[in-house]
Predict the structure.
Amino acid sequence: EAGVAQSPRYKIIEKRQSVAFWCNPISGHATLYWYQQILGQGPKLLIQFQNNGVVDDSQLPKDRFSAERLKGVDSTLKIQPAKLEDSAVYLCASSFGSSYNSPLHFGNGTRLTVT
Amino acid sequence: AQSVTQLGSHVSVSEGALVLLRCNYSSSVPPYLFWYVQYPNQGLQLLLKYTSAATLVKGINGFEAEFKKSETSFHLTKPSAHMSDAAEYFCAVTLGQAGTALIFGKGTTLSVSS
């Protein structure tokens, strides 16, 4: 099966600019996650979708981050305006069911550098 | 709230030596525990998981982990390290409830020398 696709692979922007990341999950996977992985730390959940509904966005900085999952398939994560501390790898993952009974499949991530 | 703590951000072993990566968890209810591995320039992939069945869990590539409730631990081991095991390893926890996501530890980088 095809894996989780993410683009772009790398992005460099200046602070206060905006950026968007795209994720295409594995076909048939109802649950989609966006994680932020800062250098030297483990992935931190930003938002979790079940089909096209938000299940958990408690750690999403909503003043600058937004995410959507149209038609319950592809998803985009946007940052506007970016700050230096947003430099990180943004990981998209999908699973067939819930995280405790369905393994998460991760994409290769988008590495964002904010200068 | 649940969390995991990985002891040691970097572990170095010689090829053929025992690999031991430590993970302790905190959870108010019986947890589901996972180990994920991230090879250079690749996405995270599942190594093994504990879901309240057998306490000794076997995963891919010869790795295994033992759930010890009394010690709140879920350490990852492999009897004999191989050069290809060099990667970053993440311990993760979740609850057995729909809608709960994985919470990851900070990761341990494993280096293997010849």
Observations:
- The longest strand of chain A covers residues 88-95.
- DSSP finds no helices and eleven strands in chain A.
- The two ends of chain A are 37 Å apart (CA to CA).
- The interface with chain B takes residues 3-4, 33, 35, 40-45, 48, 50, 55-56, 91, 93, 97-101, 103-109 of chain A (CB under 8 Å).
